[in-house]
Amino acid sequence: MKQLLGVINLDHELDNLNELTYFRCGAAVPFASRYRLIDFVLSNMMRADLESVGLFVRRKYRSLMDHLGDGKSWDMNRKHGGLFILPPDWNDPTDTSRGDLQHFHNNLDFFKRASAKYLVHSGSQHISTIDLRELYNYHLKQGADVTLVYKKIEELQPEHELCQRLEVDEDSFVTGIHQEKGHHNVYLDMFIMEKDRFLEMVEHCIAHGESFFFRDAIQKNQNSLKIAAYEYKGYHAVINSLESYYKNSMELLRQENFMELFGNNPVQTKIKYEAPTRYLENAEVSNSLVANGCIIGGKVENSVIFRGVQIRKGARVTNSVIMQKCVIEEGAVIENVIMDKDVQLSRERVLVGDSRRPFVIAKSSKM
Fold first, then answer.
1. Topology (CATH level 3) of domain 4-262
2. CA 362 to CA 343: how far, in whole Å?
3. Is the pLDDT of residue 346 over 90?
4. Which of 28, 33, 125, 210 is a plausible cystine mate for 205, CB 3.0–4.6 Å?
5. Looking at the keywords, is Transferase present (predicted)?
């Protein structure tokens, strides 16, 4: 889809997943037994066959770059276009830009060289299966300056408190942007607009000492812009806290949620060639997501198990998320726990968290 340029902007996403973002940015956090949060927005762009995607990052991006590589897993290792990872590298002493405007100003070549006339801008915290082709056609039909994507949430959760909300009229145009907690139209940090108009607004904001594109170019000018609203009705989860990460991980164990996210929408991730999971004689596994490369000798129920995990004989794992290459020794018991990568849990150790506030073990810990 040469008409559309992808922009994934991580600048405004705070590292608020506590131990899970000690050593990585939020977009690189593992999710759903084999993926990272970045995989979902990248896969949406891959399905729409975007020619070029720019990823703007500011901090803790080593793990993310290692995961993405040259973009081959998302069919973005191309001679023309592809995936561009654009970390901060600013050497212009006269540059006065700030916030995410600094990324856009210092990477004008990326935008100008792209042949696309429109761009779609997104973060990584909102997981969806949005059809970007449909969004693009809707934007053209509405004849808007910019189109914002929202989801009408029937039952608001604590993670929605940090999200912007949209007031939408009967013609599907935005009449207000705010953070009123009781409002159900949650903005998904995604918009589409004409590329040249976007760059004009970037330069205008910088010239007037502004810092953030959405707030200063769109939200502050909602009365002068023609802003359309696109209602997304598919699977949605927002991961902006440790509690929301755990809750949405557990909810994927419900078949209807899993099928809504993965059933008709292939999600790509970094390919790792590992053997199938091996279940030993005394293994018991129920209602769990288990990736490849594991060795299971104990009891696992209602849990998400990532690649290469070893759960020894007699160990018990319940209502937990166990990330790559963790080792849980014989007789250990864990419940309501999030265990980051490469953790080693010793024999007979018992760790029990609360279902509303899970116990978290940081990466590479030995307990």
1. Spore Coat Polysaccharide Biosynthesis Protein SpsA; Chain A (3.90.550)
2. 8
3. yes
4. 210
5. yes
